[in-house]
Amino acid sequence: MNLHRFCYLLMALAIAGSLYFPHHLLMWLLIINILTLLIYGGDKLAACQGWRRVPELTLLTFGFVGGWPGAICGQQLFRHKTQKQPFKTWFWLSVLLNLAVIAGVYWWLYQRY
Question: Which DSSP category does 109 fall into?
Fold first, then answer.
C-alpha cells in the first residue's frame, strides 16, 4: 500500500470515528489535528532516514480539511517544511481557503435570515 493511501485511510477512519461522538465536528478537529501532527513527524523521520516520503499534496490536504493547527505544531516541533517554497505558500493558501470555507458555511447556516 502506498504511503499516501495509508494516510487517506487514516483520514477515512477519523471521519468514521468522529461520527460516534456527540460533538462530531469537535471530535473530527481533534482527531485530524493529532493525525496531521503525527504525519508531519513521520515525514520528518522518513526524510532523515531516506525512506519513502509523504507527498506534499497529502500534507496540504490534511491541513485543508481542518488539520492545519496540527500541521503548524508539527512544522515547529519537528522543524519540518518551515522554509521550503512553494510548499510554504501553498500551505498558507490552504489555511486561508479552509477559513473561508468555514466562514461561508457559518454564514450560510446561521446568518442568511
Answer: I
